[in-house]
Each structure stands twice: as structure tokens, then as C-alpha cells.
Amino acid sequence: MSPIKQLLEFVNSLPVGPAYAPIYAKGVVFGKHKNVSKGKSPHENGHYTHYSPSDVALLLEKSPEQFSAIGLYTGIRSEGLVILDVDANLASLSKKWGDSLKDAPKIISTKKNAAKFIFRVPEDQRALVKGITGKQTGQGYEVLWGMQGLIGGVYPGSSDGKYPAGTYRLVQGDFNDIPLAPEWLLAEMRARKLQDTPPQAKGLVKNRRGLDFNGRTQDEIAEIVHDCLQVMPHLGRGSEDYWWQIGAMIAEVLPNDLGLTLWSAWSASDPDFEEDWSKGDPCASKWPLIVGKAGRPGNVGLGSLIKQADEYDPRRERFQDSSRKTLEEVEKDQVQRVQQVALDYAEVVERAKALLEVDNPAEMNYRMHCLAVEAGYRDAEKIDRILIDHMAYENQSDAISLKQLLETDFRRNYLIPDLLPKPAVVLLYGSGGDGKSMAAWTLLKHIATGAPFVIRGQLVPVEQGPVLILNGDQPMVQLQEQLEEVDVPVDAPVTIRTDFQLQRFAYFCKQVHKYKPSLVIIDSLIGCSGGKAFDENKSEFAQPLYWLTRNNGVMFPATTIVVIHHANKAGGFRGTSSIRDAVDEVWSLKKPDDKQIEQTGQAARILTVEKSRSGRGGTQLLMKQEKDLSFTLSDWTPEVDPTNASPSGITDRVLQRLRVVYPALRTQKDLVADPLCGGSVQGVKKSIQRLLKRGLIAEGEKTLDAATGRPRFLYQAILSRGEGVNVCPLREKPSTGTGSDGGHVGGHKGDTSTDSHEEPGTSKGDTMISDSPECPPSHPLQRKESAPKGTSGTAIRARVSETEEFSDEELDGSMGTAFSNWD
Question: In CA terms, which of 44, 277, 544, 663 is 20 to 30 Å from 209?
Fold first, then answer.
């Protein structure tokens, strides 16, 4: 009889019930990883499919050249069968164990002094035992539990070549009458499970208050994971994907050292990887990747692990009484929750939208919570997420090509040129008492009133608009005092809400749509984070900031959002670095260091732009106490940095040139030819593009080049003149079509650079000629490395006096808003 017919005859004699698997013949290539069988590799489907003897026989008949043996799976999936696999020292071990082996099926091969014995673990013991590797026993035998062992067919020979190939033979007992495992074997298996169980999973104190897995303790979850792993088989070489998936399931609920301990303990019991463990724990190096979700398969977790373990243990005998009770409670709660969900999706969205219109925040919160409970959720946050996702879906746009993106006219506006971009999210942080809130309120006054602001030593116009304060940090009396200190007019378009939570995205959208603010101030990040404030060192804490940045101008009207944040004890950035990554700009407010005090004095604070997506990184603002004990806030960046010898310095020189000749206009050709700009054609062109984007210059109508007849654009600096500040009266006669308001450009015609009129009060070249007495300067705050008006010492002189000083009242009116306390 041929070997395959002998194997088929043996297979057909086996009892139905246990799980079997055909074994690939030696040298056969199998699986997606193209593994080469050594004569002991089971069919890959056998790990997941409960093959009966007839199933195995069918595969053998269809592909007789592929298979040469049959394996028996042990453990709970095979009705508690366990294999005592003696690889050496059979004689001495048999003497030690006595008559306990005589009734068990015994299988031998050509290997001397070796045999396999098959027993059955009692049902009440199956959740309490574990397999044992040969390395763990150290006596030449191992106990197979949850794994498979060959029981018939071809023996491929020993790996060291000492014993030749042959066949497995049943020489004792009957597979239809398998005895219970002896007590000494059960004791060893129980001891191994206790030894391998992590301390956290022993003697657990249970917490039953949760309604789902999210409400359960780590110990409860760890116990369920541990019990499930007891029935999860090892697939040997070529099963890395399976191994990775098991780790991902654990990491989803236990992304910590306890989860790693459980995964490592399960992985270490796979005998095919003993050599890998001799070099260290292979799980430890992979765990950070799995926890970080790098390559982690989606939609896996504790539920996936339980479901997969149920395939091997459908009666759930693996669970201890405590873990079984926990799982039953969770599943019962889930069934009840599903039964309670009777609301249609459209109804939930419609009712949630209607609740956003409720004026009373307490009533809205209560009714939103009731809607969440009615829909089967624990709190209103889930409803808010559904609503915001629905709104995002309604506002989504089709995909666009790179060409379409580059050709679309996206323009970044500025509330304050080169300082406050719109749309943008700005994070302002500093230590307590240093003046974070007061700096924000000063910006508020400039936006709410349209008061000009000093940028690069010159007053520039500010885009006036409504301001929305979302306060979660200060009592109303403190907020009142601070706004009085900065002297915000009582009729200023400022709205204050004190009931804001950052996680309530739909509510935020409603407020911005309602008030359409140019500026939103959130005070503070911690104060408006509700119960999630304790998680500020976790990346999830920054998620609302990512949402605000990503959806600004998409799901709500474009606006500038300033978020006030606290520094840590050392004065540095507080919380996860994801907070910094999530926003467009990061401003830090600090006291000046010893070197800076020489320039600023003691009563000053410096705002530094640490990060800027609009290219302002490294620039600074100065908040300073003046002689009358008031405070001023202005840009503290030199108009031209004399230390900047890089090509990027041309942008500053182009800006300075346009400011000096203001209100005259210049073409790109004029600026290229100007020796003080000192740049290439491309350098000047890109500088103009950058200054236009930053809102520091404006583009007028085209003029014809006298030499070539080609049209060229005219450019003019955007400066503030006469808006309630002491400046020279404008005597310069503009060219035809040039606006004379000093702050806006519109309908420019002709090349003003060639204007040669010399009437009294007009300009000649770049020099101001005025009938009026010399006027006070715009009086910027000075830096050591910059000359008056923010220009370098070698730059062109501005057209106003650099020596006359302001009175305290003039200084307060031109430079900023006075306030008398820091925070």
C-alpha cells in the first residue's frame, strides 16, 4: 500500500470532534510568503478552520503530492486534548511517571527514546492550564496545548540528521478512547499558567461601574486579553502578519507596558521562534510602532480578539469566573444599547441643528445630553461629533489637481499687516502674571476700533471688525477690569461668551456664523478644555486646535483665532508638542533677558514669534511701560536688519524704499534700478510678491513703460497717516488718480516717479517740502540695532523729524493702548 493510501486509511479511522490539519510534505513551497516546508508545517487554513477527518482526507485526495502527514490541534478547540511530547529520555521519564502513561495513545517514529502521549484535560481545568516548552521543562519533553503535533504519516527525520525519515505509528491506545490527563501533568500546566500570568492579572480588584470597555479598569481588560491568548494558536514561521495583528488588537486597549507584557508572554511560547528570543525580546522593538498605529490594521481591538478566540473556544471555557462576568456585563449592556437606539440618523442631525439655536446654554446642554441618551450615547460629545462630521460632509469639495490649486486665487489677508494673518490660529503663551491676557486685549482694541499699529517702525492701517471673546479662564470681574484698563470703547463691537468648550465644534461654528468676528480670542486653552485639561501632555489634547486650523474659512467664516496658553514652571512651552504643531503661529511672551534690558528697561515684556507659517518666525513685539505708567504694544523688528547679509534682506530694503517715497508709487523696474534695493530682477520680483501677501504694500493700476511701451504695475507702501495720530499734514500733490488718504491705493494712473511739479507743499524726488512746521514722528519703540523709525543707521532718512519727542499723551495715542496690570 502506498504511503498516501496508508495515511488516508489512518485519517478515516480518527474520531470526529478534535481539529486536524494536513501537513505539507518536506520541500513543498506554500503560503503567500513562499515558505519551504520541513515536513512539519500544517496547511495555513488549519489554523482558522476546524477540519474534520473527512476534510483532511478530501485535501489529501485532491493534492496527494502536497501532503505527507496529519497533525492534531490541541487545547480547548479540540475538546481539551493535550499532547505530552517526549523528545528524549523516554525510558527515565516513563519510570518517573509510572503507570500514568499506559492507557494513553502512544505514537512513535524512527527517533529513539521519544514518543507522544495524548490525554484529555477535564472541562473544569481547561481555563486554568497552559502549555510548556521543552526549554521550560529542561528534561527533554514539552506539553502541547493550543498547538498542533504530528500523529500520523511521514516523519521527515531529525533536524540534526541523526535519525532518518520514517513514519509515525500508533503503538498503544485508541484515539476513540483518550484518558484524562494525570494529576501531575495538570499540576505542571497549572503552575506554568500561574507563572506566566502577569502580576497585574492576578488577584484583581474589580471595578464594575463602567457601561462599556471604555469604563473598565486596565486590570479587567488585561484579564480578558490574557484569557483569550490562552486559546490563540501559534502559526510558526511565515505568520508575521498574524503575530502583528494580535499585537495590534492588544495595543488598541492596552497601549502600555502591561499590553507589551501580555503580547510578549504569548509570543514567547511559539517554539518556532526560540532562536529569535535568545537575541532579546522581538516584541519590544515592534511595540512602539504598533502603539503609534504605524501599519496597524484598522478596526481591530478587544472585540476582534474575543471574536477570533471564540473560533477556537466557542463555549468560552478559557475565561475565569471574574473575566467571564466582566464580559457578560459588557455584552449585556451593548445589547441593551442597541435595543434603545430607535432614532433615525436624519432625525438626530435635524434635532441637533435645532438645539444649536437655543440661546440658554444650560438648556441647550441639557437638551443635547437628553438627545444623546435617547440616541444611545453616554454624553452629548458624541452628538456634537456626528453633527460636525455631517456639516463637514455638506461642505466638502471635490478633489482638485495641482494645476487647479496653483491657479486658484487664494490670498492671505491681514488684520494687522505682517502681524495678524487671516485666516490663522495663533497660540500666545507665557507665565502667569506676565501679561498674556493684556497683550491679547490690546490687539482686541486695535481690531475693534481700527486704530493703526506700528509695524517696522511705521504706523500701518488695521482692518476694523467685530471681536469675539470665548472666556473660560477668568471671572467676569477680572475680565471687566482688564478691558477697562485697555480703554476699549463701550460701543466697540466686542461679544463675550463664558460657556465655551473647545470640543464643541458645532457650537463654535454657530458663534462664528452668528457674530462674524474678525478676531476670536480663546482665554485660555486649558480653561476651555473642560475635563480633558489633564491630558495636555497627550497628542489627542491638540485635536481641537488641528480642527480649528484645518476648518478655518471652510466650515465657518475665515477669522483670526488667538488662543491664550500657559507656560510651564520653567517658563517654556507647556504640554505636548502637538499643540505647537497644530497652529499657524506660536508667540511666546517673556521678560527681557539681561542683554535686552539694556534696550527695553525693566518694565517691559517681549513677544517673540517662535513659529509662523507666513514667514514671520523670529520677529518680535514689545510691550513696555511708559512714563505715565501705561503700557504700549508695537512691532519690535527693525525695518532693515543691518546684520542680515543674506539675499532675503532685499525684501526689507524694497519695503523701506517704498515707505520712504510714500505716497509716491514705484514700478518693479524702478526698484530694480534703485541702488539702495541692491537686488536682482527675480529678487525684487519675489520681494514684491511677499510684501503683497503680507499686506505691507498695495498694487495700483498699470502704467506704460516709456522706453518699451510695455505695461507695468505700480506699487505703494501701505501706511497709516492722520487716523487720530500726530503726523505731518500731507502736502505732497499726488499724480492723477492717486488716492490721498494715505492708507489705500485705488485707481492709480501715470508714473508718479516722473512727477516734476515743485509747488509749495509738494514732493521733489524723495524729499518732503512742507509749508507747515516740522511734524512729530510716528515714534516707534527703538531697538539697539535699529535707527529711529525702525530703519538701519545707513538707510535713507525718513521724511519726518527724528529728534522731536512725544508728550506722554501723544505717545499713548500713537503707539498703543495703555493698561495698568499684566494679567
Answer: 544
